[in-house]
Amino acid sequence: MGDLKQITLITAQERLRDQVAHALRAALVAGELRPGRVYSAPGLAADFGISATPVREAMLDLAREGLVEPVRNKGFRVTEVSERDLDQYTELRALIEVPTIGHATRIATETQLEALRPVADEIVEHATNHHLIGYLDADRRFHLGLLALAGNDRLVETVGDLRKRSRLYGLTRLDELGMLVASAQEHHELLDLMLAGDVPAAEACMARHLGHVRSLWAQARDEPVEPRPKRALGSR
To answer: What are residue 47's phi and psi, to 5 degrees?
Structure first.
């Protein structure tokens, strides 16, 4: 029974760590945690009303995603990303994703592509309802799901890492400016072109989508978002 209690405790701790990580990602998206600013695990734990350990563990998870970086004896600094960084991330994604979408268009079955239709629907729904965390999750699943159809797991991992390093920037402002829904609808256009087997058009759509997202980032960053009230742990 002692081992069972220990396993139950570990599981509960891991669940709390995941909840904290989710809340911190939401705070990053909403602009509550500001780029360049250092936050301590005890300080954030006080906001959440929990101990510092799961917060520290969650911040280490975010550090592995490139969203924050440890600062010795102080806490974690929210990663700042320059316009040059964003340009380079977008260029790398285009070099990888555009031809891969073309390859996936050639070899994917109608069943495989239609399986991603509900995810494209989710993206539009979350954009319409201003649910940014849900939008990010569905957008990630859609793009990585399409790339996975090409059969290269390492390629999917690489793009996943690039997305983690660039996905947060300007998203809140895009939502406030009413630009997010139009970007969300482009996923249906891409899927329809792939289902039609139109390789050049699918590649062009993917390139345009990435370029569109990058230009929207630039517009959003011109108008900073004011910090919002802190959210409770587990809120969406």
So the answer is: -65, -40
Residue 8 pLDDT exceeds 50: no
Phi and psi angles of residue 69, each rounded to the nearest 5 degrees, phi first: -135, 140
Q: How far is it, in rounded angstroms, from Cα 54 to Cα 83?
A: 33
How do strand 38-39 and strand 75-78 relate by DSSP bridges?
antiparallel
Q: State the pTM of this model.
A: 0.74
Is the distance from CB of 79 to CB of 67 less than 8 angstroms? yes
* Sequence ranges of the domains in the chain: 2-78, 83-221
Is 1 in a helix, a strand, or coil? coil
Please report the pLDDT score of residue 206 as a whole number. 94
DSSP 8-class letter at 67: S
The domain made up of 2-78 has a fold known as Arc Repressor Mutant, subunit A (1.10.10)
Give the pLDDT of residue 57.
Answer: 93
Q: Report which of 29, 2, 48 is spatially closest to residue 133, judged by C-alpha positions.
A: 29
Higher pLDDT, 15 or 153: 153
Kindly state which CATH superfamily the domain 83-221 is placed in. Answer: GntR ligand-binding domain-like (1.20.120.530)
For residue 78, list its beta bridge partners.
68
The SS3 assignment for 85 reads helix
How far apart are the C-alpha atoms of 107 and 160, rounded to whole Å?
22
Distance of CA 148 to the CA centre of its chain: 17
